Amino acid sequence: MIKPMVRYRDVRKSFGNVDVLKGINLDIAPGEKVALIGPSGSGKTTLIRMLMTLEKPTSGMIEVDGIPLWHMEVNGRLVPANEKHLRKVRKNIGMVFQHFNLFPHMTVLKNCTTAPIHVLGLSKKEAEERAVEMLEKVGLGDKLDIYPSQLSGGQKQRVAIARALVMRPKVMLFDEATSALDPELVGEVLEVIREIANEGKMTMILVTHEMDFARDVADRIIFLDNGRIAEEGPPEQVLERSNSKRLKKFLSRFRAG
Question: Class of 1-60+182-257 per CATH?
Answer without folding.
Answer: alpha beta
